[in-house]
Every structure is written in C-alpha cells, then in structure tokens.
Design brief:
The structure holds two protein chains of two kinds. Chain A is globular, with a radius of gyration of 23 Å. By secondary structure, chain A is mostly helical. Chain A contains 18 helices and two strands. Chain B is mostly helical. Chain B starts with 6 loop residues before the first helix and ends with a helix. Classes of the chains: A mainly alpha, B mainly alpha.
Chain lengths: 426, 183
C-alpha cells in the first residue's frame, strides 16, 4: 500500500506546519470552538428530533418558544438547571454522580481526531482542521467509544433500582456485542487506506472513490452497529420506555439526566461524523481532489467544512428518520442479529475484500476509476447475495421474522415444562 | 549519559506514574468490588498515558481498548450480575499469612525491577538511539509493531493466537457442560 504513503508525502509539506507556540494556541482555540459548536449542535438536535418526529407523525411539535420554537433548547436547558437534584436513598452516591460524567466525556473526546476540513493556511503556518492528528487515529476512536458503556452501566448499578440495573446490563451486553461488528466492519476501510490515521482514510477516498461504493457491506454493518452503539431506536433497549420505565436513567433528575441526553446526542454526532469520514469521503468535495493537494486557501477550507457539515446533517437526519420509523428489536433478535449475522458477515467480508485487493494489486491496478468500479461490482454482487439469497425475509424485517416450526415447538416445550407454565400462565 | 527530557515531558510522566500507583493501591484496598474495578480502570488509563509518553501510541491505545474498554466492562458486568455490590456479603479478607506472602512477592518484584533497571543490557538487546522515532517516521504507529510481528515472529504470533482460540473453545465447552447438567 505504498500509494497512500506516497500521496501523503505529496500532501504534507506544501506549507510548513506551525511552530510550538502557534500549535498550542491553535489547538486550544480549536478545542474551545469545537466544544462550543458541539454543545450548540446537540442542543438544537433535541429540537430537531422533536420537530422531525412531529413532522413524521403529522403533528406540529414545539413551536411556541421563539420563532418556530427556536428558543426551546434554551428554555429546556434553563429548566434543567433550575430543577431539584434528587438522590435515591439507597444509591451509591459517588458512582451515581460519576456515571453521567463518564458517559458525557467519551462522547466529546472522540471528536478530537476527526478531520473536518482542508488545512487552513495562515501567516504562522498550516493549521490542520483537526484538533489532534494522532498516528493511531482510528484506534483512538474505537478505544474511547468503548468507554461510553461505563457511564450507562454504572448509572444502572448505582441507582439501586431494578429497572435501571436491567437497562445497564442490557446496554453493556449490547454495546460489547456490536462493538465487535463495528470494529470488524472498519477493517476493510483500513485495508484500502493502508493506514489508521483518519487523514489518510480521507485522502485515499479523495483519490480512490468513496468507500460507500468500494465497501458497501462494511458501510451497512457499520451503520447498524453505530445505531446499536449509540443506543438509538431500533436498538434502544437500555432505556426501552415501554419495558423499563426509562432504563438506566430512571432515577436521574435535572442536569444529571440532561447530561445523559447530551451524551446520547453527542454520540450520534460522533457516529455520523465517523460514517462521513470512513465511508463518505470526510470533508472531500465530491468529484475534485483540490481539497487534498491544494493550493490550500481559506475559501477551500470553508467549502470543505461546509461539505463536511452537510454530510453530517444528512446522517443526523437519518438517525432521527430511523428512530421515528422503525419499532424496537426484541432482546433475542438483537443478540442473534449481532452475533449470528453481523459478525460472520463482517469476518467473511474482510476475507473477500482482502482477496480482491490482493488480486487487484497483483494485476497492477492502482486506485482510480477502474479500481473503484471493480470493487463496486464485487459489492453489488455481495449485496444481492446477502439481502436477496441469504435473507429469506429475516434480516430486512426481523420484527416479524418467521420462526421455524421446529424452533417454535422447542420453545413451547420448554415453556410447558417450566414451573411458570403450571401456575401463572394457565 | 542521561538524555535530556524537558519538563513538559517529565512532569506528566511522573504525574501519571503517581496516579497509576495511587489508583492501584486504592484498587487493592477498596472493599466494594465495583469501586475497586473502577480504580483498576483508572490505573489502566494512567499506564496508557505512560505508554503514549514513551512513544508507544499503539500499545497505549490497545491498553485502553482491550483492558479498560473490553475486559473491565465484562468484569463489571459479571460483578453486577452476581450482585457482589455489597461489601458485607463478600468477606474476602483472608488471614495474616496470605497478606504477608503477597507483600513479600511484591517486594521481590520491585527488587527485580531495580536490579534490571540498574544492570547492563547486553549490546545485542540495545536499541539504537532514535530508533523509535525513525520507525514511526517510516512505518507509522502500527507498522512499527506489525512488521516484526508478521515477518520475523509470525510463527510465535500465530501459535499464541491458537492458544487463545483453545482458551475460548475451552470456556465455551465448560460453560455449556454446566448448562446441560442443570437443565
């Protein structure tokens, strides 16, 4: 995979990177700006969620506070600050307080490695539009996002409430299960890029075509796993309000409850940003390669940031669209989808893609139109195989998926023999 | 001849070293298993910072990803499932002798580290200066680790993975045997 390294050689040296002092100031500035923007975006996502749900369900939604309800998030925030903080008597107080913080921090930390625009040339040197361009970029994201589960699990445990505990346990099982598929689905992306820095993944896509074409199945697995990781419907079992009251945050009130909410939306933004970066070219302006070779200008930076934001907003809308369209999975369906379908599929896909890349390398085809179209053709065939031949109505519509007669009989047999069957059910 | 490191580098290194040791002590002394597990997570984090400061970014991230993100979550999961949350239920305080033996082993290990740190390393084990930086420049953070692993030490690496596979299969077999006996 020398080509990407060679490309990065071309990309990097154009404008000398800034010195230490400028680096510190620029990084601090970027951190503050990113934090502020994220908080505002998250606040307005709650409004967007309510307005979009209302639109999907043919209602009005909140439209009284300010023009079109635009000040609603401010009012909500104020309300949450003024509310009384309650603590359950039997709660483990330090961990009860720690839990919302632990779910909030990883949700925001992930953002520091995501590149959101073309480098910005200044008088003091080139400033990359990423807070920290780590050499282990993508692994850092996996590591930090695997910590998000602590907040939820500890919240469930520390509340000393059975619904909360059930929610916490569900979430840990769910997030561990889908994390594996999530990690596996990104290995083909790393195979194509030949590196783990997000910068090189974006560069590779600018030249080799977006990964959604190159690696369609990886994208589909990533999409489903991202929904499970962010605990969004159809995988919102940790807080399933019809079963568990409110799940892991049942006992939380005021700003602590709000922190969980902010964390959920921040996770959504992060997951969307990852999908954009890994599969939709990141800040890459479609059909051009200027954003990676330069000459870098302020306008180019602005354009690429706007392209990034547009892609991001689409995925955020998609998250909401799915939430208000699909019903929740049953717990056993969730587990069997994760372990019996997504994980084997992801593993098989890694092998297939590795083989195809090897063949392409041996045949001497370099990344470009030909490379992408061969990969794309392979993917079309695979998508057809997975969803038309192997499916039989199980994956696409799992909520009312058919159960084989033998399995049903076995389940009924188990139910008839259990002590519950004699007394309670009949 | 000690190389010179700036304060920006040494201060966080010692800071997180102290945090790691303090959290490890808290981990051993806490009675509630959940609290103890959380202190252990904190130790893992501090260790990962030390790895990153030593230019081993990959190991640092793996430390968080594998230990803090996967193994400790499963630990917590099990602790909660078994409801070991209440300290009174698990009188795990053994007698005086195990404590003394553990302390003796600890002191021995510290002594070993001291001896190794002060001893002279054979020249063939010595890494040339700037080796790490050079490798990072050439192969990136992952290639530095992956290259030797998949070229020179491929057999050992694959054998280790077979060992892990055997362990997984063994765990599944043991888990299932218990299940069939009960049902």
């Amino acid at each position: 995979m020398m080509h990407v390294a060679a490309l990065l050689q071309v990309v990097n040296p154009q404008i000398p990177p800034q010195g230490n002092g400028v680096f510190v100031i620029a990084t601090l500035l970027k951190m503050v700006i990113m934090f502020t923007i994220l908080m505002v975006v998250v606040a307005y996502l709650t409004l967007a969620e309510r307005r979009i749900s209302a639109w999907i369900q043919d209602r009005h939604g909140p439209n009284r506070v300010g023009p079109q309800g635009l000040f609603q998030p401010l009012a909500d925030g104020l309300k949450n600050f003024m509310k009384e903080e309650t603590y359950p008597e039997a709660a483990n107080k330090p961990i009860f307080i720690l839990a919302p913080i632990l779910s909030f921090i990883p949700a925001l930390t992930t953002w520091c490695v995501i590149p959101f625009g073309a480098p910005f040339p200044t008088r003091w040197g080139r400033i990359d539009m990423v807070v920290a361009d780590l050499p282990v970029g993508f692994l850092f994201i996996l590591a930090i996002s695997s910590l998000g589960v602590y907040g939820i699990v500890l919240a469930g445990w520390a509340s000393n409430n059975k619904y909360a505990l059930l929610g916490g346990l569900r979430s840990s099982a769910q997030m561990i299960s889908y994390e594996i598929s999530l990690g596996m689905s990104t290995i083909p992306v790393l195979l194509l890029a030949g590196n783990v820095t997000l910068r090189s993944i974006v560069t590779q896509q600018a030249y080799g075509g977006w990964n959604v074409v190159n690696l369609t199945i990886a994208f589909l697995i990533f999409l489903v796993a991202a929904f499970a990781e962010t605990n969004r419907l159809p995988f919102d079992l940790p807080e399933a309000e019809t079963e568990l009251v409110a799940g892991y945050h049942t006992e939380y009130s005021a700003m602590k409850f709000s922190l969980f909410f902010i964390a959920e939306y921040a996770n959504m933004v992060t997951a969307s940003a990852l999908m954009v970066t890994l599969f939709f070219g990141g800040f890459d302006v479609p059909f051009t390669a200027h954003d990676n070779i330069g000459p870098f200008t302020g306008w180019l930076t602005l354009l690429s940031v706007m392209i990034f934001v547009a892609k991001l907003l689409f995925f955020l809308f998609f998250f909401m669209w799915v939430r208000w369209t699909l019903p929740r999975f049953r717990y056993d369906q969730l587990m069997s989808l994760g372990w019996k379908f997504m994980l084997p599929l992801a593993l098989t896909y890694i092998i297939v893609i590795a083989a195809v890349v090897l063949v392409l390398n041996v045949a001497g085809i370099t990344p470009g139109t030909m490379y992408s179209s061969i990969l794309g053709a392979v993917n079309i065939v695979l998508v057809m195989i997975v969803f038309a031949i192997l499916d039989h109505g199980r994956i696409i519509s799992p909520a009312y998926g058919r159960m084989e007669g033998a399995r049903l009989a076995r389940l009924r047999g188990v139910a008839a023999r259990s002590p519950l069957a004699s007394g309670v059910t009949r | 001849m000690q190389p010179y490191y700036s304060l920006y580098y040494t201060f966080p290194f010692y800071l997180f070293g102290v945090i790691a040791i303090a959290s490890a002590l808290a981990f051993v002394t806490r009675k509630s298993p959940v609290t103890a597990a959380l202190w252990l997570v904190n130790t893992m984090f501090s260790l990962s910072v030390l790895f990153v400061l030593l230019d081993a970014q990959f190991i640092g991230v793996m430390q968080v990803l594998v230990y803090a993100g996967a193994i400790m979550v499963v630990f917590l999961f099990v602790i909660m499932l078994l409801n070991l949350g209440h300290p009174s239920e698990i009188a795990d305080q053994r007698g005086r002798w195990p404590t003394l033996v553990a302390a003796a082993i600890g002191i021995l290990m510290i002594a070993e580290i001291m001896v190794i740190a002060r001893g002279k390393v054979a020249s063939r084990f010595q890494v040339p200066p700037d080796f790490a930086a050079e490798q990072m420049q050439q192969y990136g953070a992952i290639g530095t680790v992956a290259r030797p692993l998949f070229n020179e030490y491929l057999l050992a690496f694959e054998l280790t993975s077979v060992l892990l596979l055997v362990a997984i299969a063994g765990a599944v077999v043991l888990g299932r045997r218990k299940d069939t006996r009960a049902g």
